[in-house]
C-alpha cells in the first residue's frame, strides 16, 4: 500500500472513530436505540453539506481528494478539537508545517547553551521525529539512561513504552503514555507512513501490547504545559511544570523544560539532583548492583 493510500485509510479510520464517539446529546440529537453517542453517516453528511456517498468514501479510505472546506465542515459536524481538526487536515495533505527530515538533527552549540542555562531545571531537546538530541546535566541525572542510549533508540515514544526507568519515574504512566501517543499523532499525522516513522511504529507494535492498545484508539491532542509528578529514586517526588519551546531558527527542534512547582519543595530536590550530577557520584541503582 502506498503512503497516500495509507493516509487515506488512516483518515477514514479516524473519522469513523470520531463519528462513533460523538455525543448526540451535545448536538441536540435524539438517542439511537437508547444510545446517546454515535452519529449515523447520513447525519454527518447532512450537517456537513455533502452527499452520504462522498462521506462514506471518506470513511472507507477511497481514493478521493476532499477539499479543505469539506474537511473543515466535517470537523465542525463531529465537534473535533483543534488538534483533531489539524490531524484530519494533515492526513489529507494540508499540513500546517513541514515535517522536515525524519533523521535526528545535530544539536547546535547555541541550543546546548540554552539547555545549560536552565541550571537545576531538567531540560532536553527533541528533533522532529521525537529523538532526544540534547540535554543539560540535571536532566542527565533526572533521566540517567539518556547518555547511555544509542541515538537510534533515543526516541521519546519508543522509550515511553520500552524503558522500565521511565515507567517507574512517571507516576501517572497509564495516563501519560496515552497522552504521548495522542501528541505524537497530532504532530506527525501526515508523516506516519514515511519510512523512518513506519519502522518506529512497527517496532513498537511488535514490542508492546500496551502501545498497540493505545495506538488503536486514534486519539489526538496537542502538547500543553501541565503540572507533572515524577518519583525519582535519588531525591524523591518532584512536582514539575512541563513547558515546551520551539526554536525560531529551526521549527523542527523543541526544547522541553521542567520548572519546579513553587509550593512543593521540588526546587530544593532539584538542587540536590544538580549537586549529584556535578559531583559525578555513582547513582543509587549502580551502588546497589555492586
TrEMBL record:
<dbReference type="GO" id="GO:0003677">
    <property type="term" value="F:DNA binding"/>
</dbReference>
<dbReference type="Pfam" id="PF17765">
    <property type="entry name" value="MLTR_LBD"/>
</dbReference>
<dbReference type="InterPro" id="IPR010982">
    <property type="entry name" value="Lambda_DNA-bd_dom_sf"/>
</dbReference>
<dbReference type="InterPro" id="IPR041413">
    <property type="entry name" value="MLTR_LBD"/>
</dbReference>
<feature type="domain" description="HTH cro/C1-type">
    <location>
        <begin position="14"/>
        <end position="85"/>
    </location>
</feature>
<dbReference type="Pfam" id="PF13560">
    <property type="entry name" value="HTH_31"/>
</dbReference>
<protein>
    <recommendedName>
        <fullName>HTH cro/C1-type domain-containing protein</fullName>
    </recommendedName>
</protein>
<dbReference type="InterPro" id="IPR001387">
    <property type="entry name" value="Cro/C1-type_HTH"/>
</dbReference>
Amino acid at each position: 500500500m502506498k503512503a497516500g493510500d495509507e493516509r487515506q485509510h488512516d483518515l477514514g479510520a479516524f473519522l469513523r472513530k470520531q463519528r462513533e464517539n460523538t455525543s448526540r446529546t451535545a448536538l441536540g440529537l435524539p438517542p439511537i436505540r437508547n444510545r446517546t453517542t454515535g452519529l449515523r453517516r447520513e447525519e454527518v453528511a447532512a450537517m456537513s453539506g455533502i452527499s452520504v456517498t462522498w462521506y462514506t468514501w471518506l470513511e472507507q479510505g477511497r481514493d478521493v481528494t476532499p477539499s479543505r472546506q469539506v474537511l473543515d465542515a466535517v470537523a465542525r459536524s463531529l465537534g473535533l478539537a483543534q488538534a483533531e481538526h489539524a490531524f484530519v487536515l494533515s492526513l489529507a495533505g494540508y499540513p500546517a508545517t513541514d515535517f522536515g527530515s525524519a533523521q535526528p538533527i545535530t544539536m547546535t552549540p547555541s541550543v546546548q547553551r540554552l539547555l545549560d542555562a536552565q541550571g537545576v531545571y531538567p531540560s532536553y531537546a527533541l528533533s522532529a521525529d521525537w529523538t532526544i538530541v540534547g540535554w543539560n546535566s540535571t536532566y542527565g541525572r533526572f533521566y540517567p539512561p539518556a547518555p547511555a542510549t544509542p541515538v537510534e533508540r533515543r526516541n521519546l515514544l519508543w522509550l515511553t513504552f520500552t524503558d522500565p526507568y521511565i515507567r517507574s519515574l512517571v507516576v501517572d504512566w497509564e495516563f501519560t503514555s496515552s497522552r504521548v501517543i495522542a501528541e505524537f499523532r497530532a504532530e506527525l499525522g501526515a508523516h506516519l507512513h514515511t519510512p523512518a516513522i513506519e519502522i518506529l511504529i512497527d517496532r513498537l507494535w511488535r514490542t508492546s501490547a500496551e502501545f498497540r492498545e493505545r495506538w488503536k484508539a486514534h486519539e489526538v491532542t496537542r502538547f500543553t504545559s501541565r503540572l507533572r509528578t515524577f518519583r525519582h529514586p535519588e531525591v524523591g517526588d518532584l512536582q514539575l511544570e512541563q513547558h515546551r519551546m520551539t526554536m525560531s531558527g529551526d521549527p523542527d527542534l523543541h526544547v522541553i523544560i521542567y520548572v519546579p512547582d513553587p509550593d512543593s519543595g521540588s526546587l530544593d530536590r532539584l538542587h540536590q539532583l544538580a549537586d549529584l550530577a556535578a559531583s559525578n557520584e555513582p547513582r543509587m541503582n549502580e551502588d546497589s548492583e555492586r
